[in-house]
Write a structure and sequence with these properties.
Length: 349
């Protein structure tokens, strides 16, 4: 890329024009006032919780069906992760259980738009507003998805983004960002990502070194303009899968309303853990890149404190045993998709 060559010879490596240009492009795409580029999606969550004043003595509620980082960030800032189960239809946080999980110590909720599917951010925001706590969105897997016509990451206190190489908008390495329309939150994040430094050698808060790398920002800016087309392709592929697999004993993640799913992953649910495990071996044996996301819900990860017992979240635990993800990427050829569907049909025959 000529822009990378120009950056390398120009030497504007840290928080220069490349980063602010991507931040402005992302803010425009999402329809928010500010985006702050950081080092990763995990740091986006950690810095956001810190910017919101979350720390020891507080609780943060999140959903037990997610990638580890959603809960790790809570534990990292010294707060207690409190979990709620997900729903069997859409695999997302069961908002009927959210209110009961909020206590006097709760400072925030992290809603996760898992596998590319937008969660009901409108209802979550209402519950949080009534409780007087902040809503944070973990948008790592769902760039471009919409709820009630609005992009995820645009209506809460903050949306946290990962651009790790597997994501729908992928950097060539680690990268992340936070989107917000609150100036104070954006300013605090700007300090936190850069050693807590407002001016050179004056460190007003205990910060991090977590800046979005300039080369990654150039890669992301370049790709941002293609994201809509890539997401449309993912949606079309998911439709093809659903059509061709319709006769098999499988369940699918509910796609939600218009624009509600951008299919970071295409999940299928089998009837039992035995079938899932056998199907996975069969697909892998046919050279198909099937994968289990995620084999353990968050409360079963030994790294986390305050873990509820196995059995506490029956829906997420069943999904962990019974689902697998089929290959989906914008450049998946029709013949590759057909090969996967044929292999599935052979398995169930
Ligand atoms: C739901 C979710 N949250 C957070 C993260 C963390 O992002 P990163 O890997 O950029 O730290 C990921 C990345 O896989 C994710 O899928």
């Amino acid at each position: 890329m000529p822009a990378i060559e120009a950056l390398l010879s120009g030497g504007d490596y840290i928080l220069g024009e490349a980063v602010s240009d991507f931040e402005a492009g992302l803010a425009d795409y999402l329809g928010v006032e500010h985006c702050v580029g950081v080092n990763s999606g995990t740091d986006a969550l950690i810095l956001t919780l810190e910017a919101l004043g979350v720390g020891p003595g507080y609780e943060v509620v999140t959903v037990v069906n997610s990638f580890h980082a959603s809960a790790l960030a809570i534990a990292r800032v010294g707060a207690k992760p409190v979990f709620v189960d997900c729903r069997p239809e859409d695999f997302l946080m069961d908002l009927d259980q959210l209110e009961a999980a909020i206590s006097a110590r709760t400072r925030a909720v992290i809603l996760v738009h898992l596998f590319g599917r937008a969660a009901d951010v409108t209802r979550a925001a209402r519950i949080c507003a009534e409780a007087g706590i902040a809503l944070v969105e973990d948008c790592a897997q769902a760039i471009g998805a919409r709820w009630d016509g609005k992009r995820v990451g645009s209506v809460s206190a903050a949306g946290c983004w990962s651009f790790a190489p597997s994501k729908n908008l992928a950097a060539a390495g680690d990268a992340g960002a936070v989107s917000t329309s609150y100036r104070e939150i954006a300013e605090r994040l700007g300090l936190l990502r850069h050693f807590g430094q407002r001016v050179q050698n004056e460190h007003s808060v205990k910060g991090h070194n977590s800046r979005l790398d300039s080369i990654q920002a150039l890669v992301l800016r370049h790709k941002l303009g293609r994201l809509e087309a890539w997401n449309e392709r993912r949606v079309a592929l998911a439709g093809e899968y659903q059509e061709r697999l319709a006769g098999l004993p499988l369940g699918f993640q509910d796609p939600g309303g218009p624009g509600g799913h951008v299919y970071h992953l295409f999940q299928v649910r089998t009837e039992s853990s035995e079938v899932r495990d056998a199907l996975l071996s069969h697909l892998l044996g046919d050279g198909i890149d099937a994968v289990v996301r995620y084999p353990f819900p968050l409360h079963q990860q030994p790294a986390l404190p305050h873990r509820p017992a196995v059995g506490a979240f029956p829906v997420a635990e069943a999904l962990a045993r019974e689902t697998l993800a089929l290959p989906i990427r914008p450049d998946l050829a029709p013949s590759e998709l057909q090969y996967v569907c044929d292999s599935m049909a052979t398995f169930f025959k």
